Peroxisomal membrane protein (Talaromyces proteolyticus), 528 residues
Amino acid sequence: MIGATKRWFRRNRKSLAIGAGVVGVGYLAGQYVLSKISEARERMSSDRIAKENLRRRFEQNQADCTFTVLALLPTATENIIEALPVEDLTSELQKKRAERLAKLSGSDVLGSEPSSSTAPSVTDEDGRSLSSFQADSYVHASQMAGSVTDTDTQRPARSKTELWNEVKISSITRAIILIYSLSLLTLLTRIQLNLLGRRNYLSSVVSLASPSNDVSTIRLEDNDDEFSQAFGNDFETNRRYLTFSWWLLHRGWKGLMEKVRTAVEEVFGSLNPREDITLVRLSSLILDVRKRVEGATEEDRRLTNWLQYLLPSKEDEDVVLKESGVLNPDTPSSPQTTASLRQLLDETSDLIESPSFSRILTSLNNEGFANLIEQKCATAVFKAQTIPEPATATALSSAATIVPSPAPPKAKLATVLALITREAHVIGNGTNSPNEYLAAMEQNVRELEAFAAVVYSSNFELGLLHSEDTSTVPNTDASSNPLRPTDANENLHATSAEDERDNTHGVYSAFERVWGKAVGSSDSSGAA
């Protein structure tokens, strides 16, 4: 039996060897396929986790932007209201009216019967106009104590006509400058927090991707570690960079206010507060003011210098840091902090000077003025109905939405000024309730989120290359690179190597190309 078995194996040893080889190869091939499937599954799982992580980080960053704007807005509002105290002017007008009524009453006591019969007709119109300001009005805290007395002692006596003209110019200027300040603060905050959010994302991912020398040691996140320093994401750099919003809140708005006030005087200067005005004419006048401030054409708006209102010149940068209390003369800045801050400020300047910034700012302003003129004034003053369309009569690039009427309703300009005066406090509200103007801007301007996504996800590869100069980053293959943006919109990822080699246009050129992809993707998703 044993011998027969040996002879059988000897006769079939070649076939058995071939069969064993086939089985072995099949087993190895199966194991290889299973390992590849498992590797692909793990890669898909890690990509999904990375995509969800990036999405959550981005959404949280945008929520932080909204909260930051609401926290900073009251500072700008306080400064603007103090510079344009419409309530003080109204109190002065009320005082003059009270003195005039007292004189008429005194003449009535002396026996001038005709005077008493004519007094109501003389004062009714002024009374109704002033009551419009007084009803539901807001008085700033800084104007509560002796506003009329301060006005009397600091300013020369002015006539009623001069006071009404000042009320007209100041109330319109104040509302317009508050809308501009809200739009500019919204965009500046988006740029700042998304630039820092991008750096924080890069540093955290690189830190996780780099193995620790001591695997048994538990590492807590440290914002001042070597990876954060490599990306310029240290605490001191971030603190100084965010401080530069101080310029808009305390200095920048002043230059913009002078420009707005000049435009308002040119457009509204000849109007009498007592005359009637239609909603269409009011929209046209506001649009005329905007054209003088922002620019009448697309090219003019692109060339408007908004940077001077948002960031100081290089000579004034130390002034901002000192005035805000961030720069300590006794503690010199490290070269790393100075270089990182310079890089952040330069990139911010490039973004502000880009045509995309101008386009989005125009859209934000459109929403702000639409809410003021075509919503509040139309319903509260003119009792008109509006078509629920995103276009607005005060928009620089859209048609009017007011329903045409054979007899458009009219209202006294003084009544419109009263509403605008009250709305100024609503525009600058950042504490009591949600700011409806900010909510309208964020909800209706879809390009704002696309802009933030471009800022958040641009130059990822550039940041990686910068980090490789100071640290070793493993596994930088394009197919498994942890720094590769993996958010839902693949078109919002980092700029290409060709963009980064473009020394002529730099970040500006790279940003514009990525922006084109973002807008195209946004339009296609909206059409779907």
